[in-house]
């Protein structure tokens, strides 16, 4: 797209959105400013946005001065809080019970019943208020606060919300409970309910706000002023009431009520981020080595307990199959479990994919297939069918397992950067197969001269380098966006992240197509693989590399640090020179001290056992914690 | 074995959803049944009721007050809903851009009115619309339109429905913007990107690709928005109380007054039934379009 046209669109987006934001926020701004003014400064033409004389005591006066037959707003507020809290607690219990029934049992007419419940949310409350009043009158609940609680303790919306969350609880967990002989109610209370933390927060806030904002219903059923709720009390203040001159106090009272709503909503919005603010200290394990132990083995518990002793609070691993029992053991010890999936590399299956489908085999600028390096070949990411198969696998893993998060690994263009990006080595560009070049031509609106592959590659790298970089980044960003979106739809609570290659930004974009500015907003964690020994770099290189990523992905950088190199040969890899214990201490200390770095992942967890490196980590974490 | 498995599932499934069944029976089925019965009587609160068949409904058909309420409801709902749908769609399209700076702030600003309560914000809007001294008057003065500053927004028959509609638009647009935004997210970007690559302009992409894909959501927003907006009581109560000269006396206000002020329980129940029937038709239409993911 031409730049000027694009800029024009952006400009009009900002113009429209800021105009609407002003319309949307102006009443609130005016409300707050009026609430802080003297009465004579409230209604002035022209408007005085900044109070000439500040009167913050208006809030206290609005709350405490008795005005309505001896009652004050504080009383109304207390009533509102009481009603909302009781409704919320009842709603959390009832709707999760019902949601569990709808989510985890099969019976006839189930979906029809759910649909009926949900349809009731579409009817306006005012359409049933008269008949409902007749019922409540018959139950002798008129002028009682219970009349405000009971009809709202269970709604179609709360049932549906609870059901959506409970449906993500893995069925294996329930089956395990049944095998252990637990009753259905016990399974719900002991196994399901404790897993619903975030769901309960959302459910609670939604119900609380609905209850807090009720107006017509209390207006109808309440008659004694001592039982009035806040909206009802506020409505006594409006125009036509006897308090005509106290505009500043109205606004103080209104601002108090409105700010409760906003405050609650903000806390709901930040709830998703709460998980992130907790520092992740992870340990990476290669699945085939680590998971050989049976989860039921006492040794497994021992390994995890030792890690927890080092301050580790999350296990990172990568595989296409997981043992749910392991995950449960980790959870029981308070450790999170982050699975990961190799998106564009099939080394987990000895590269079977490229042998069976040679078109997936990356082609270098020389026109030849990438030669295998160590265990790695890589896969060209432009083949939709393969990409979709990986996406499906990711979804299946996320559905079946109770992971806390799923990290995307090898989500990049082929490059064995561990060897190819050492100082003095020459990285190979990929992939110049005809399919990829065709896609590039469409993307960039260029036509690559028809000649041998090597010629086309060198034409691209000299004449269209920028477009080629953009294309590679677009392919990766598109895949990550789609994967994360689909993952969210099956598991709204799942944390996501991606491993990134530790190269300078321009090189990273050109060689592997990872553009941090585009990728970071899509996920919760960005994990730079700062393996200094593998890349033959000094210890000081780690902090500068991680620092760059932390700037590009604020609050999301979770560096993966190389603890030692001696495990490499056993895995068929060269992990570089030995890492001295002091070197590890320096790297971990420097990295944890970086601004905007939320934690780290030890590569590998096994290496933390070597000469007290885990102890070193624990000490550094403690110091770091004290410094904060 | 299979049969036993099924009955086990059914038994516990029904057990767990039984609170919902009770709730639904107690707070939807029973009240509506009661109101149907009441609507066939001349019941006034505090007096004995007599069965009068469909006379209440016949009365509604020829009651100019009811016609007026219906008209007022449709006018205000029409103005408000058309503006809400248009604004929400445009805002959602503008917000559906992952590279947009400040997008978090914009979303917060657009959504802020949705979560606050009608009464607190209604008090503010009363003062915004106040002639000569109010905020709107101040803004008009500020831009040199002083002849407009004396407009009596909430107390002239022509302007009062508009004032109510403006308040409703301010309060509700954010909600439907989020619904559209959720819908836009589910439109595969590939279609749009492919069309852009083939040389289509942004306007063409929007009208030929995005809009047709958004059709089901637009239908949902229009239908469910209609039911929601026509059922609103609070904005009218806060701004005009149904006045001036009944200009904003919409159905919810009509029912409320008939029942709670004039105590005509039977007649009000009949009006309630007609209103419920209107809402039910639209709710069923909307439920057919109900994309489950919106409620996440």
UniProtKB/TrEMBL annotation, chain B:
InterPro entries: MetI-like (IPR000515), MetI-like_sf (IPR035906), UgpAE/MalFG_permease (IPR050809). Pfam families: BPD_transp_1 (PF00528). It is found in: Cell membrane. GO terms for biological process: transmembrane transport. This is Sugar ABC transporter permease. One of its GO terms (cellular component) is plasma membrane. Keywords: Cell membrane, Membrane, Transmembrane, Transmembrane helix, Transport. Residues 70-286 form the ABC transmembrane type-1 domain.
């Amino acid at each position: 797209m031409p730049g000027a046209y694009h800029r024009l669109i952006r400009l009009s987006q900002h113009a429209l959105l800021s105009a609407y934001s002003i319309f949307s926020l102006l009443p609130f701004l005016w409300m707050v400013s009026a609430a802080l003014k003297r009465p004579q400064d409230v209604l002035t033409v022209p408007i005085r946005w900044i109070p000439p004389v500040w009167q913050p005591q208006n809030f206290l006066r609005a709350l405490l001065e008795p005005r309505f037959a001896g009652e004050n707003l504080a009383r109304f507020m207390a009533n509102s809080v009481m009603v909302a809290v009781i409704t919320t607690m009842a709603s959390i219990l009832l709707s999760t019970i019902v949601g569990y029934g709808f989510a985890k049992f099969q019976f006839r007419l189930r979906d029809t019943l759910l649909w009926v419940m949900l349809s009731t949310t579409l009817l306006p409350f005012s359409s049933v208020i008269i008949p409902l009043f007749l019922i409540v009158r018959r139950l002798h609940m008129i002028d009682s606060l219970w009349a405000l609680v009971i009809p709202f303790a269970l709604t179609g919306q709360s049932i549906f919300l609870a059901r959506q969350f409970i449906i993500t609880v893995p069925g294996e967990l329930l089956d395990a409970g049944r095998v252990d002989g637990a009753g259905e109610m016990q399974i719900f209370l002991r196994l399901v309910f404790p897993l619903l933390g975030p769901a309960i927060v959302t459910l609670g806030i939604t119900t609380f706000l609905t209850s807090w904002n009720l107006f017509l219903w209390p207006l109808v059923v309440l008659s004694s002023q001592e039982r009035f709720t806040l909206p009802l009390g506020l409505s006594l203040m409006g125009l036509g009431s006897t308090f005509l001159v106290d505009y500043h106090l109205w606004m103080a009272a209104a601002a108090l009520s409105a700010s409760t709503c906003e405050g609650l909503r903000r806390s709901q919005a930040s709830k998703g981020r709460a998980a992130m603010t907790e520092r992740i200290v992870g340990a990476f394990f290669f699945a085939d080595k680590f998971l050989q132990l049976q989860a039921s083995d006492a040794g497994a518990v021992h390994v995890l307990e030792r890690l927890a002793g080092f301050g580790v609070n999350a296990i990172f691993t990568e595989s296409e199959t997981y043992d749910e029992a392991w995950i449960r053991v980790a959870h029981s010890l308070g450790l999170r479990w982050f699975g990961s999936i190799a998106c564009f590399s099939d080394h987990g299956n000895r590269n079977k994919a490229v042998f069976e489908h040679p078109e997936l085999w990356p082609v270098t600028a020389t026109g030849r297939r990438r030669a295998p390096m160590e265990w790695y070949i890589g896969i060209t990411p432009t083949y939709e069918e393969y990409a979709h198969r990986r996406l499906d696998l990711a979804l299946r893993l996320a559905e079946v397992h109770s992971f806390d998060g799923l990290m995307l690994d090898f989500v990049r263009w082929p490059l064995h950067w561990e060897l190819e990006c050492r100082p003095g080595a020459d990285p190979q560009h990929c992939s110049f197969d005809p399919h990829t070049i065709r896609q590039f031509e469409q993307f960039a609106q260029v036509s690559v001269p028809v000649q041998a592959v090597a010629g086309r590659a060198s034409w691209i790298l000299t004449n269209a380098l920028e477009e080629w970089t953009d294309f590679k980044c677009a392919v990766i960003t598109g895949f990550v966006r789609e994967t994360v979106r689909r993952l969210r739809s099956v598991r709204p609570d799942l944390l996501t992240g991606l491993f990134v290659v530790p190269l300078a930004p321009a090189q990273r974009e050109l060689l592997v197509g990872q553009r941090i500015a585009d990728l970071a907003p899509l996920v919760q964690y960005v994990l730079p693989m700062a393996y200094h020994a593998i890349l033959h770099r000094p210890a000081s290189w780690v902090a500068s590399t991680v620092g760059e990523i932390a700037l590009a992905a604020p609050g999301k950088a979770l560096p993966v640090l190389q603890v030692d190199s001696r495990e490499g040969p056993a895995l068929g890899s060269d992990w570089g020179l030995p890492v001295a214990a002091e070197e590890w201490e320096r790297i971990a200390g420097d990295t944890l001290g970086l601004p905007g770095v939320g934690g780290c992942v030890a590569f590998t967890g096994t290496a933390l056992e070597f000469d007290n490196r885990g102890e070193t980590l624990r000490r550094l974490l403690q110091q770091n914690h004290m410094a904060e | 074995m299979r049969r036993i498995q099924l009955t086990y599932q059914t038994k516990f499934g029904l057990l767990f959803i039984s609170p919902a069944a009770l709730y639904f029976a107690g707070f939807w089925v029973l009240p509506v049944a009661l109101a149907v019965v009441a609507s066939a009587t001349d019941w006034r609160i505090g007096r004995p009721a007599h069965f009068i068949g469909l006379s209440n409904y016949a009365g509604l058909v020829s009651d100019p007050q009811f016609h007026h309420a219906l008209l007022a409801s449709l006018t205000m709902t029409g103005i408000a809903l058309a503006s809400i749908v248009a604004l929400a769609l445009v805002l959602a399209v503008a917000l559906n851009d992952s590279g947009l700076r400040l997008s978090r702030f914009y979303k917060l600003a657009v959504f802020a009115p949705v979560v606050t309560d009608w009464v607190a914000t209604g008090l503010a809007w009363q003062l915004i619309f106040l002639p000569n001294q109010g905020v709107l008057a101040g803004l008009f003065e500020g831009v040199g339109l002083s002849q407009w500053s004396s407009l009596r927004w909430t107390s002239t028959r022509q302007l009062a429905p508009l004032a109510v509609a403006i308040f409703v638009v301010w309060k509700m647009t954010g909600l439907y913007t989020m619904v559209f935004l959720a819908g836009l997210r589910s439109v595969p970007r590939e279609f749009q990107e492919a069309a852009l690559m083939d040389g289509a302009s942004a306007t063409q992409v929007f009208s030929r690709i995005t809009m047709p894909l958004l059709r089901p959501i637009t239908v949902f927003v229009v239908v469910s928005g209609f039911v929601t907006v026509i059922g609103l009581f609070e904005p009218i109560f806060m701004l005009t109380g149904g006045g001036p000269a009944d200009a904003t006396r919409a159905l919810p206000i009509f029912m409320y007054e008939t029942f709670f002020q004039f105590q005509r329980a039977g007649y009000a129940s009949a009006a309630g039934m007609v209103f419920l029937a209107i809402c039910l038709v639209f709710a069923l239409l909307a439920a057919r379009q109900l994309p489950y993911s919106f409620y996440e």
